[in-house]
Amino acid sequence: MAETYLCPPPAAFEDTSAIREAKSAPWSSSLAVAPDATIAAVSRALSDLIHAAPALDPASVEVDRLPEGRARNHLTSLRDLWRDIGRLPEDLVPLAHAQSCKAEDALAPLPLLSSGSRIGARASEVALAEMLERHHGSTVNVRAFPGLIPAGSGLLSTFQSAGIAPGAPISVTALRDPLEELRHAAARAQRMLDDGTVHSAEEIGLLLPDDPAWLVDAEAVFANLGLHLGGLPGAPARDRATEALHLILTVLNKPAPGMAAAALDALGLGTSDGELRGLLRRHPATGGELAKTLRAIASHVPGEIARALRAMTCGPEEAPVDWAGLIAATRPGTVPEAPVAATRGALAVFTEGQNPWREVRRLLAIGFAGDRFPSVSGSGPFWLEHEIDLIEKCCGIALPGRRASLELARARLDRQFAAVSEGIEITCPVRDRAGARLAPAATLDLIAHRLGTKAEDLIRPLSEDPADWLFDTHVPLPAAPRTFPADRTIDLNRDLTGLRLEEDGTVRPQSPSRLDTLLVSPLAWLLGELGIEDKGWGPDALDAMVRGSLLHKVLEALFPPGPPPDPGSMAEAVPVTIDAAIEDDRDLRFLAAPAWTVERRHVASDLTRIAIRWAEMLQEAGATIHATEEYLSGEAFGMGLHGKVDTLLKLPNGTILVIDYKSGKSTKRVKRMKNGWDVQAELYGGMIRGSALAEGKNAVAVGYLSLTDMVAVTSGTLAGDPFGPLDADTHGAAKEKLTETVAALRQGRVTLNGTADAKFFGDLGVGAYALDNTIVSAFLREDDQ
Predict the structure, then answer these.
(1) Labelling 11: which of 62, 206, 527, 646 has CA 20 to 30 A away?
(2) How is 188-245 classified by DSSP, letter by letter?
(3) 579 with 592: CB under 8 angstroms?
(4) What's the pLDDT score for residue 458?
(5) What does pTM read for this prediction?
(6) What stretches of 246-356 adopt beta strand conformation (E)?
(7) What is the pLDDT at residue 474?
């Protein structure tokens, strides 16, 4: 249209500065707390208003019709913001220009292909349609473009007379999860091709939820049967230079988010080059320092990224760095969607938010559960739903909200169904990919109502009897009930103690924590040896692992080798040491962000209590700190062993005492040691006895410091002075069990766990965390309770 009406190039529509400068606007206080989120919310609300306004002019927004209140204040501020900017978004400039022209000004006719429906259309889109109809006329030809097919036509017109028996125009089947749905759909498509229900794959449609995971999985599942999918978006381009520049600036602005550093690693930057890692640890304070740092980094990165770094404008040389502005300015923009691959001879893929682009005879509609079908977007953070309704009622401005989104989603689904001529097969997953239970989609209630039935009567589970299936062997038969060996032992016919190898081919040593896992579950240990472990990602969190890592680092720094520190100095030293530990460890740096202030305060309080009491205990015992975080090596159960001990103490009688820091209370640890099932501390003691740290024939004792109640548990005995006598056998039962288990592993035998094992180990005080492994849980044998 811009070319037809000779529209001049539009000027850039830039609203960020105007949003920041609106000091009296309702969002001004939010800018100080969350500038990026606030600007994004206001910018979206402004765009929605401009597109929904009765005319492309701020004067058409008649705020005086609204009663006094929040809605009027916010709408007035948006209208004034639009007026102050003084121009339209780039996509509306051609429309405004065309509206000022006459029909004869157009270089060529542009007749409107209309469906007669205005559902979901914004005021600007309605104005465009009316202008084109005035200038060029319109035509209604729904078959020219399936997306224009009106709701209620095609197969929808037969809904009321449709039955739910196999072969009826519509059926709804419940399946286990999304992956099983895709396999079922692929098998149904192949069966329809095999039995002649359709003549080619082009006559089959596949309706999917708006989720990239569905598209990726669908392509893989259908490809396994040799079926191609048409309508999938191509791979979008990636601006690696801008992405790298944005991430580098984010990492240099301390504290650096952990995911920014991880994303740089994914780009191949910052991992193997030691000098580059050092440069990325800098925190330039001025524009000059930042420019110098970026130039230094440029010599360590590929040419395209290096050019972007050298061309970066960093601000005045002596002025502080405007981190927020630079990071926002370099944020990679939205990549235009790649063209749709409409492959000939392929199934037509429709997505929930897309009008149909091809008519089909059969439609396989999957994913009808949870918040899908319809997926409804709310009003966003700027407006409340009742305010949207009030503005439409008083001002005639239909802003996007939940009600409009629901109406559009239903109309789009009607169009998708209307593009089908013979049959619709809907499936709904009972569980999501994580195993959580899902409710059927709300649309199924509507479909059931049209069919004169209820949703629960409409949905039929897939029978486990293959005779009832609508396809043959394209989907695997239901798995047979699992069986276990009578003695719970799997024989793999090879030595399993040498699976993990170093680069030179030698067997990697075990660690005390790995042998602790072996004590509870040989299968969990074997999975770890094979690298079959959960490597899931989650957002930054002060969980037990992160908290434990921070506690260990701080205690190591506060209690170096030598005499114990003064308890009175701990309150001042702890916060400084915490800051240093967070700055030194990339995995902890997220804790330096303002959002984690409360959590840091709680950790500092706990660590101050711990450090003061630990210093007092060391002074009471007359102990000196012999070594900290010492790497040890040795042998246990015929296998190599290595590990790092938290701290070694030297008592007045010359005894070397191994102390392993443990979170939590001492109660469970005492029970475990008294029952003779301890593992880790004794293994550390064994490695020390064979090293120079034992200083000849000095006795070596072992124990733990429980950081929650600050109780030292040594050789199974509590209290004392404060470490107590060191003469109890704390590991005899565990040693006997591990000796037996390792001998079985050398013969290739792995004993599976039973359902009673969790209680068995719990009664002994042993933490059976290895049984939480998903694979181990799947192979638990039912024990007699």
Answers:
(1) 62
(2) HHHHHHHTTSSSSGGGEEEEE-S-HHHHHHHHHHHHHTT--EESEEPPPP--HHHHHH
(3) yes
(4) 79
(5) 0.55
(6) 340-341, 347-351
(7) 44
pLDDT in tens, 155-165: 444 444 444 43
Question: Any idea how long the chain is?
Answer: 785
pLDDT value of residue 784: 65
**Tokens at residue 409, please?**
């989603």
Whether cis (ω within 30° of 0) applies to the bond prior to 722 is yes
User: Residue 337 corresponds to which amino acid?
Assistant: E
Q: How many CB atoms lie within 10 A of CB 306?
A: 18
Instruction: Give the pairing type, strands 347-351 and 229-230.
Output: parallel
**Cα 245 to Cα 326: distance, rounded to the nearest angstrom:** 10
Q: What three-state secondary structure class fits 347?
A: strand
In the block, which residue shows the tokens 């893929």? Answer: 349
In Å, how far from its chain's centre is CA 667?
A: 36
312-337: pLDDT as tens digits: 888 888 888 888 888 888 887 645 55
Beta-strand pair 656-662/639-650: antiparallel
Q: Residue 416: name the closest of 506, 355, 500, 347 by CA.
A: 355
Q: What angle do CA 397, 406, 356 make, to 5 degrees?
A: 105
Instruction: Dig out the tokens for 152 from the structure.
Output: 């209620």
Residues 11-32: pLDDT tens digits? 888 888 888 888 888 988 888 7
Q: With residue 685 as reference, give the H or E element that holds it.
A: helix 680-689
Residue 525 pLDDT > 50: yes
Which position has the token pair 């006598």?
A: 725
Q: Which stretches does DSSP call E strand in 49-168?
A: 112-113, 138-139
Query: Other CB atoms closer than 10 Å to residue 57's CB: what's the count?
Result: 13
The residue to which tokens 């509609």 are assigned: 365
CB 123 within 8 A of CB 396: no
β-strand partners of 139: 113
How large is the C-alpha radius of gyration of the chain? 34
CA nearest 146: which of 425, 447, 414?
Answer: 414
3-class secondary-structure state, position 384: coil
CB 227 within 8 A of CB 201: yes
Q: Enter the tokens of residue 20.
A: 């920041």
18 SS3 class: helix
Among 750, 34, 48, which residue's Cα sits nearest to residue 398?
Answer: 48
Long-range contacts: 526-533, Cβ < 8 Å, 24+? 526/496, 526/499, 526/745, 526/750, 527/773, 527/775, 527/776, 529/496, 529/499, 529/500, 530/499, 532/775
| Cα 711 from Cα 722, distance rounded (Å) | 8
In whole angstroms, what is the distance from residue 693 CA to residue 685 CA?
A: 10
- Beta strands 624-636 and 232-233 are unpaired
Sheet holding 459-461, edge to edge: 229-230, 347-351, 204-208, 360-365, 420-429, 170-175, 459-461
Euclidean distance between CA atoms 280 and 256, whole angstroms: 10
Name 217's Cβ contacts closer than 8 Å, sequence gap at least 6: 178, 179, 182
The string of DSSP codes covering 712-726 is: EEETTB--SSSS---
Plot region of 370 (φ>0 → left; ψ -120 to 50 → alpha; else → beta): left
C-alpha–C-alpha distance, residues 516 and 612, integer Å: 31
Three-state SS at 459: strand
Interatomic CA distance for residues 149 and 139, integer angstroms = 13
What number of CA atoms fall less than 13 Å from residue 680's CA on the CB side? Answer: 20
- Residue 499 CA to its chain's centroid (Å): 32
Q: How many CA atoms lie within 13 A of 57 on its CB side?
A: 6
Q: Which residues contact residue 541 at a Cβ distance below 8 angstroms, ignoring those fewer than 6 apart?
A: none
Query: Residue 286 gets which letter from DSSP?
Result: B
- 425: part of which helix (H) or strand (E)? strand 420-429
Three-state DSSP state, 473: coil
One-letter amino acid for residue 743 of the chain: A
Amino acid at 392: E
